[in-house]
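User: quick one - fold this with glutathione bound?
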Amino acid sequence: MKLIIATPSPYARKARISLYEKKIEHEVIIDVPWNENTLTKEKNPLGKVPILITKDNQFIFDSKVIIRYLDQIKPKPQIYPSDPKNHLSALTIETVADGICDAIVLIRLENVRVNNLISKQWIERQEKKIINGLKYLSSELGSKNYFIDNYFNIADISAFTTLEYVDIRFKEFDWRKSFPNLNDYWKFHNSRESFKLSKPGNQIIDPITY
Ligand SMILES: N[C@@H](CCC(=O)N[C@@H](CS)C(=O)NCC(=O)O)C(=O)O
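Assistant: Sure. Structure tokens for the protein plus glutathione:
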């Protein structure tokens, strides 16, 4: 099995963590999806990573779809809770966490546009989503160590990944100070093997000229 990733990508990291948790052997292929020569073009109509390439050469894309596929081929440990109530709660945390990352990506893209095209209002709109999303995660977590029912699942993979994405891409916001419970949570999970093995890396992207 192969996984096409970008090293900073929080979505790709969710898939990587799930592969490590399930101890599924895989090869990582590093790509820069924003560049002209990206590998994603023929494999995902949306041109995005992560993309999982199965042994029979099927391309599976979107982190949520990849992880569900992994849950099917190797159910233990299960990443998406099977209990319907927990499933819904975990999906909601994942959606908010992914939405925070989406907003960060949009700000980053806005900031690399030609100067007179950069919209301050657009950036502020995205910043609100990041702060409100983190506020939501903080209040859903409370003083617990896991988001859902005291066991590790997709909610924790998504939330932890998002917090470290904020660290690298939205440094100006000190979430540790604003949300001390999220900081305690980060400390609790930081030494987890799958998290250590998938730390995000920086990547240089070609200038965006549109
Ligand atoms: N919903 C997708 C989001 C994937 C995504 O946005 N990936 C970014 C990298 S962080 C990407 O490849 N963007 C390239 C583009 O939009 O052209 C998922 O969860 O896999």
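One thing worth noting: DSSP finds eight helices and four strands in the chain.
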